[in-house]
Known about the structure:
Layout: E1 4-10, H1 22-30, E2 35-42, E3 48-50, H2 57-60, H3 71-74, H4 82-85, H5 97-104, E4 111-116, H6 118-124, H7 127-135, E5 143-147, H8 150-159, E6 164-167, H9 173-182, E7 186-190, E8 207-211, H10 216-224, E9 229-232, H11 235-241, E10 245-246
Parallel strand pairs: 1-2, 1-9, 1-10, 2-4, 4-5, 5-6, 6-7, 7-8, 8-9
Antiparallel strand pairs: 2-3
Amino acid sequence: MTGRVSLVAHRGQPLSYPENSLEGFSFVVESGASYIETDVNITSDGVPVLSHDANLLKLTGKQIIVADCSYDDIKQLPAGFSERFGDQFNHCRIATVEQFSALLKDWPDVTCFIEIKEPCLNYFGLKAVDLIMQALKDIVSQVVVISFDYDALEYMKNNYDTPIGYVLPEWSEENRLKSIQLDPRYLFVSTDFCPQEKSQLWAGAWEWVIYTVNTAEDVQHFAGLGIEMIETNRFSELKVESNIVEKSNDF
C-alpha cells in the first residue's frame, strides 16, 4: 500500500535491539525515521534515563527500581535484555536523557516523542517535568512531551513552549472533554480501544497517533481511518512492507 503517513519508531526497534537503547535509536534514524518515541524514568539522584519500566529487571536481569537507585548504581550494568538477545548486547547500558539528546543533535530533522512515566511523577511530583526538560535543553526544538498524566501535561503547557501529546488512558467521554480542555498537538490512542470507524474519532485540532501497529495490513486500516501517525516496533521492516510515503515533517 501507499499512504501519506509517518511511522513512529516505538522505543527504537525493540524486536532487533534492546528497547530504548541508543543502539536501537541510532539504527532507526539511520534507517530514515523522522519520528521516534522513548520513555523516561528518573533515578533517586534526579537523573532522567530512558526506561519504560520502573523496574529494570527485563533489561538488566536484576530487580532494580529506577527511583530507588542513583545513576551510579545502574550505569555499569549490562542492559542488553538477555532473555531476548542473549549476550549480543551486553555492551548496552541504560542511557541518560542527556546521552539521548547528544545522539539526536546529529539528527536535527528527527522529532522525538518523550513519554514521562508515572513512577517518576509519583516520586518527584511535577519537578520531574523540570528535570526532564533540563536534560532535553539541547534538542528542545525537536521534542514533543507526552504522558498519560493530565496534570503533568497541563504543567507543561503552562510553563514551557514545547508541544505536548496526551496518551489516552481509555476511550471515554470524560477523556474527550479533557482533551478538548488540554488542546494537545497530538492525541495517542491504543489499538486496544481505538474506534474502528473514522466518524467515531473525536474532532479536534490535534493529530492522532496510534500505538502499537506492526503489520502492513493494520497500517492500511488505521491510515484509512485518517490516522497518519503510526507507532511501530518494526520501523525498518514496516517502512518497506507498507511502501510508506512519508508525510512532510512540519514540526
